[in-house]
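Wed. Picked up where I left off yesterday with Dihydrolipoyl dehydrogenase. The coffee machine is broken again, so keeping this brief.
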Amino acid sequence: MSKEFDVVVIGAGPAGYVAAIRAAQLGMNTACIDKWLDPNDKPSLGGTCLNAGCIPSKALLESSELFHRAQHEFADHGVQVDKVGLDLAAMQKRKSGVVSQLTGGIASLFKANGVTSFAGSGQVVDSGEVRYTDHEGKEDTFNAEHVIIASGSEPVALDIAPFDNDRIVDSWGALEFDEVPKKLGIIGAGYIGVELGSVWSRLGSEVTLLEAVDEFMPVADRDIAKEGLRSFRKQGLDIQLGARVTAAKANKKSVSVEYTQGDDSQKVSFDRLIVAVGRRPHTSNLFAKGAQVELDDKGYIDVNDNFRTSLPGVYAVGDVIGNPMLAHKGMEEGVTVAEILAGQKPHINYDVIPAVVYTAPEMAWVGKSEAQVKAAGNDYRIGQVPFAANGRAKALGQQGGFVKIIADADSDEILGVHMIGPYVSELVQEMVVAMEYRASSEDIARIVHGHPTLGETVHEAALAVDGRPIHFPPPKRKK
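Structure written out below (tokens, as returned):
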């Protein structure tokens, strides 16, 4: 017997669960179908982000950083620790507890907002019709006025390095190691690769990252990418650029990897190998044979400005519709599509979506890079100030990195902000708000920032755009 809903959401990751909650808040009878199972084969809401990505990785990043600091930095603060030991099982248990609390929180939010949750798979049959299959294989039909696809993305697999979920793993498997690999290889040095590499390097692994492109983190502004590369290599990460893996074979106790770098061929052996070369849209078995939904040339679901697909009444949001593949971008799309269905006129400014890499130092940016501003033909000015000039950073013992603000030379509107240093994941949010309101660098320069705070470096960088920083020598002016 079929079930009737106003809205059916397929996927309970950041885009999907937010879309379902907002639709329910707006008075729509809403169902959400999700097939994720945790390591114990129990249904778990939250998608990749909460179960196998953003949240567990940040939990391990925090734990591993504390372990590293206890070994190498506490003594400088006068904190004497006779012997620092690692209990990886306890660390993993804590990570799993954080995940469990947050995924359980979504279930509570569904209940509080009146969203009906179904564990299993959803398949679009036609406009307004979804086939639901539970984990036991039992099928049902859901009829709905609106269908929202939020099926997310999955790790890109490589034929030359097939996953065996033991020696060769994806990013989820890399979060579940029960022992620290002595030698760890990672294919890909993007934000996922360097975050995972940082975790296991701090815990004692000898980490090598093999990146096919010749530039480190090309999505970032060149100045912070250069500083990040220098910092990560100094920490012990062996980042090999222009290294194209040609073969990887898992053995009983190791993985042999072959790669080319320039004209040279290399062969190396690792205890474990992580494949972190990006993600692709998850559309497998999402559409029944007769459901014609157009995809673009990269396999993403094609949508218009209102997130409508080519199939009437069917919408799509989040990773499945394309870059940037960021949880917060998907969340806002989830809210937006629900409000569109309710007859409202919401808006997302895709030019002001922040990006963050949660390494130490952290990297964060919003808006255009200097190269993008230059390519657009804009005349611009730059204010760049290091954290070394900041009192709070010195007190923290984390004075590496800098803040860089790019502003239009004529209007002074802020075009891009790029940061590397302590807690820049939080500092960048001020600039997201500023750019959403089209602030100038002078606006930031004239706002009082608390002292001593890391935010003062943002203030100084804004002053530096006009060549007048207070706590850092101004750039030499041309006569």
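Quick read: The CA atoms of residues 194 and 359 lie 7 Å apart.
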